[in-house]
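Predict structure. Chain length: 351.
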Amino acid sequence: MKPLVLGGTGFIGLNIVKLLTQRGIRVRVSRRPSSNTIFLRKLRPELVYADMEDLHSLRQAMQGCDTVFMAAAPYPRFSLGPRDQIERALYKLDNVIQAAMDTGLRRLIYTSSVVTADWRTAAHQVLDEDHVATHAPPRAVYHALKIALERRFIDATRKGLPGVALCPTGCLGEYDAKAGTGFFLVALARGMLKAYPEGRINMVDVEAVARAHLAAAESACLARNRYLIGGHNMMVSDLVHQVCQRYDLKEPNRHVPLTIAALRSIRDEWECRRNPGKRPLMAREFVDMLRFGRHVSSRRAIRDLDLPVPPFHQTLHRAWTWFARYGYLGPEFKPRRAAARLPLRTASTTQ
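Prediction complete.
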């Protein structure tokens, strides 16, 4: 395999690069002048310039490669101005698809999202690959962008693009440098999360997500062009309780109604637009994920991609230790305090 990783400086991308490197595969990683390569440098991949808005640079980056991992799918910074964000994201994806077709890739693995599963089903229903969203919930920009991108990608596979879309749930693990999914660990450790909205979630080990990407690249023939990549179904309250019990944190005892959380997230977005260096405590896309979230089954990924599902306390321990090592949790937390204690009440996604 001669792989190129687009988005190799991001959370999932870094874990893909790490896994490929551990297996002795020489990796090429795209970067832009503004890319943060602090963690990537330790893995020593070949770095090349590529910008998804520049078709020529993508063609050059893909030359000599047979596999591309697109872990650089556009991410909406805010839920404001949705039409422009979606059009720009589709333009970038079209460039990647065109470059892949022009260079004759063997396979393009596209990192999508679990929000492309059908949110209109009954709240108690467990979703699989047969449940595909046809449109986004009202004013849910993250959902709208991810659904539009995946639809464009799947259409391209039906027209001859040798590709597969992987849809991870909430990822936990190393290299979450922007504290995206792991923001709740940081917020709980620093006493910033006084209340939280309840909802259905699924959490997956980011190392398992990377392994699924590699399996999708290596498989000679895949049964599907889209897979849900999950780990453990749970409620937010289960997750918060487990974290607080395991690491001796004060547990928030108030729930915020999801409608109120959505209004607060919009207010916080406007505040962050006025103060560019600030970020909302609870981003709008996270609130929307809880409002429209469903539990999922990853039995097909387990069967076809040999997706591992490690015990959740191991995944939580790795994430906590990484955040502690790099000072995200505050000076009082050291990696030695991250000892496993209690199992978390979860349901696996094999059902």
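Summary: The longest helix spans residues 82-103.
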